[in-house]
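Working notes for the structural subgroup meeting. M.R. asked for a predicted model of this chain before we commit to crystallization trials. I am recording the input and output together here so anyone reviewing the notebook later can reproduce the run.

Input as submitted:
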Amino acid sequence: MKSIERRAREVDARPSMRERNANLMANRPFVWAFIAALGVLLALGLASAVASISSVVFSVFAAVFVTLGLDPLVRWFERRGMPRGVAILTVIILFVLVIAGLLWIVLPLVITQATSFIQSLPAMYQDLQAQDWFQEAQSGTGGSLGTVYAWITTTISDPNFWATVGGGALNIGVAIVGGISTGFFIFVLTIYFTATLDSSKAAIYSLVSASHRARVVDYAERIMQNVGRYLSGMVVLAFFNALYSLILLSLVRVPFALVISVAAFFITLIPLIGTVLTTVFMSVISLFVSPLAALIVLIAMLVYMQVEAYVLTPRVMSRAVQVPGSIVLIAALAGGTLAGLPGALVAIPVAAGILLIIKEVVVPWKARS
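Returned structure, recorded in token form:
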């Protein structure tokens, strides 16, 4: 008993970590400064290492998000009586077929139309100048409308502009090669993650202590299911938007409807603001045809926005976590600033997961405390 009390007094008499640091700083300042400098260098080295592999980290996260987006489709096949292994294989085959179809059929058409669109802009602007409404608007604005349109068409159709944006022709080529390799890497990782999702999750869960494992597994599964539903729902809504845009633009005879619709698909993956941006863009492009075509496109897109908000979104996203509009804007702006359009797309599911953690973990914990 006395030995235990003596050990307790020795432990109490030991200087704390703060006291030891203070003594080291006072008695051996050079050693303390050297250790602190090593810590700073280590932190900078870790930050540099993470920055150097940022593209790999982004590819891994992108593949994880795509996998979570495909998981609801796997579960849908399972609910139809299909074994999980067969459901996973079916989803992988469908995913490969969709990517192959996009690369072999849609992508060449989009590239051809995009090139023709850029080359045709000066001629389209000349036709626009010949229209009566444009001449009236030109005179009413003192020539400023024509100046703006001329600058836009000249800038977009100038190859030097795209070379400058890409940092030069060499950098554009490097960026294209890098984008292709990154896309292929994400594609392969997605197939692997989809095939091994359950075993990968089981391996990660085994690292959690047994006393907290059940709760962590429950929250993690709910978060991943909600994020997966959110991602798959946004893809479905974006597909509806792109298909509707293609049909609408084709009916009003807007040129290059396919490339505009493909661009609308990716932009409308950003909820709340994506449809607004595509509506404005398509209305402006339709002015090259006629003011009536632009008015029809604007009204039709406004009607579609109401249908999307009150009919499609509640049905498609009914089981996914809902993200407030302000959070969508903040997440999209932050993600876009950090990593462009892919960053904006990834940031919103991350925000959805964080909101779910706050709702399911933080709020109940605060209520019990």
